[in-house]
Amino acid sequence: MSVDGTTALKSLNNIYNSIHNFIALAEKGNGSDIALKLRYIEASLEQFKESVDSASDITGYDTNVVNLSSNNRNALPIHCMQCNCAILSPNVASFVDAKPFSLPFCRQAKDSTSISAEVINSWWQVERMFDFENIGFTHARDGVKYLICANCDDGPVGYLCPVTKAHFVAVLSTGVEEPLDLIRLSLDERIYVKMRNDREVRGRLHAFDQHLNMILSQVEETVTTIELDEENFEEMHKQTKRQIPMLFVRGSVLTKLFRMTTEQGQTNVLSTGVEEPLDLIRLSLDERIYVKMRNDREVRGRLHAFDQHLNMILSQVEETVTTIELDEENFEEMHKQTKRQIPMLFVRGDAIILVAPPLRHT
């Protein structure tokens, strides 16, 4: 069975944890437990080998590849880029190249008098409306009706030619001309952000900069930790969630970001008073803030000064350091927290992951 590289990478992580636990046991000199751990490492290595052998592509896939059948039709189903539902079944659309047409972007700039569009050259041509799986039509604009996904209303994904009455679905429409356009189109929308150290947040995007530093509100943070089941030595994934009113996210710790489906009928009732990420830090001067740092370190203190690199000075600081120790009886990981009080502290900006200031209304 062909799979992506996720399974292989997860198996590799299992091996790393097994070796870590094995070394801890070897240091204690417990012979029977060492033999048991060796068998678990052997099984993990075999699982990893099978995952690599079955992986179709461990690095991902190329979205620019067009899969055609022998009759120049789509060999694979065509899906909506937003909700992934099927728009066309295999072998129903003909590939048409070198046919430029300006397709409007899904989202338009506020208060703009002109329509922003993207010139698409490659299309899937469909003659009959009933060949679609999930498709909807907009009202005609300048004589042209546009196609949208009937499941999530995302679009336009194509258009209906007013002359030939043929339907054209864009082969690849990103809605962006440069990487940050994707973030810009997501302003005031809820987005999902995957970060390092098995941390993810979902929140409404209010501001960002060229370094992908960003401000989110109405945030739900999820932290995933891995524990080892003492009976069958399988990994258990434990998730801890918390709600954060306002959050500064450091761009250097991001690994993945995408816009979530827009909530119907929901309005943004929170006024942030920020136009760029550092504005949120500026509004928090002389306030107590929470700072999440690398190496499982966090501090809470009163902000006195900061610069454009996010270096900052805090006073009345409570520092919390979390360390992981292995229980020698049941080999479970134990999280130990050490706290200390610091009168004045300099925090280096490149060590910061998150900054959660107090909620401010303007």
Strand content: 35-45%
Number of strands: 22
Characterize the largest beta sheet: strand count, sense, and whether it forms a barrel.
Answer: 10 strands, antiparallel
| Helix and strand element order | EHHEEEEEEEEEEEHEEEEEHEEEEE
Total of domains = 3
**Distance, first to last CA:** 56 Å
Query: What would CATH call the class of the largest domain?
Result: Mainly Beta
Brief sketch in words of this structure:
It is built from four helices and 22 strands. The chain is an alpha+beta fold.
Describe the structure in your own words.
- This is U6 snRNA-associated Sm-like protein LSm3.
- One of its GO terms (molecular function) is RNA binding.
- It is found in: Nucleus.
- The protein is α+β, with helices and mostly antiparallel strands and 362 residues long.
- 16% of the residues lie in helices and 39% in strands.
- The chain has 3 domains: 5-55; 70-107 and 115-170, Beta Complex (Metal Binding Protein, Guanine Nucleotide Exchange Factor, Chain A), CATH 2.170.150.10; 179-262 and 272-356, SH3 type barrels, CATH 2.30.30.
- It has helices spanning 6-28, 31-54, 179-184, 277-282; strands at residues 3-4, 55-57, 78-79, 86-88, 94-96, 101-104, 117-120, 123-126, 136-137, 145-148, 158-160, 167-170, 190-195, 199-208, 214-228, 235-249, 254-259, 288-293, 297-306, 312-326, 333-347, 352-356.
- The longest helix is centred in the N-terminal third of the chain and has 24 residues, at 31-54.
- The relative contact order is 0.09.
